[in-house]
Amino acid sequence: MKEKIAVGVDLGGTTIKMAFVDESGNMIEKWHIPTDITDGGRNIANHIGASIKDKLKDTDLEISSIEGIGIGAPGFINLENGFIYKAVNLGWENYPLKDDLEGITGLPVFVDNDANIAALGEMWKGAGNQAANLICITLGTGIGGGIILDGEILHGANGMAGEIGHITSITSGGAPCNCGKTGCLETIASATGIARIATEGLSDHPESALHQRLDGKERLTAEDVFISAADGDEWSNEVIRTICHHLGLAIANLSNGLNPSKIVIGGGVSKAGDQLLKPLKEVFAQFALPRVYEATDFAIASLGNDAGVVGAAKLLFNQTSKK
User: Fold this and answer.
1) Looking at the structure, do residues 133 and 109 belong to the same domain, yes or no?
2) What confidence tier does 323 reach under pLDDT thresholds 50, 70, 90?
3) Distance (Å, whole) CA 287 – CA 250
4) Contact, 317 vs 4, CB < 8 A?
């Protein structure tokens, strides 16, 4: 019996990552193409289809061995029909991605939000270690999230579950968020938020080493803060304690309601490793129920840029196994 193969697609604003992935989660081949956002992104599905066809020839795989395509896409998605309501970075609005791609390739296509797909990838083959109940949080320019319950992505009433970055962390005031609210967790614990907090308080800390790190640069980065903190800079360490307080409280509150066995932290900020995890776990222990705390393990995401394609392949296999 021929082994089933999925095409995993991670659709980004500048790059489309793709991979042939077998049922065991092994990547047979991975590659990427640039994202063409001209003409309102209408060429993207054609480019994905053509690229898959070309790669099949390169690898001597037959189209008959491909089960279908799983795709993680940004934006608001109708999970039943793969309809993209809005994906600003791609120029899509009310776009039938699933129907278009199925028509072009002749393969079944399943679409989900890119953050959910990354969580599924980490759960299946990454730091989640196949935990059936998992929260994955990516700390990058913004904050993304995906929640896995009983091995399935939690979507909620209309696909909005997992918007962890928009938990209101500051109830009065706070920095404005791109979503239109103020005080969202994303404005504090993202890479952007960490740099903002460090910069705004810098004038009150003339002794901080961050002054030297800012010298000659347009702005501070989250990496600057963690490097200075490791060197003993007190203001940098205070910034890290602040962001970990808000992030740890949010994760504890989520965990008290969901009771996960694994919290996976990814994104650029996660490169800080234990420098982030140690204070974060201390705050989590303070606010999580004791039995919730006992059941929960923290880990740094391990798949990196492969999480999306691996998770997209897993989405395809999960969906086709139900038919």
Assistant:
1) no
2) low
3) 9
4) yes
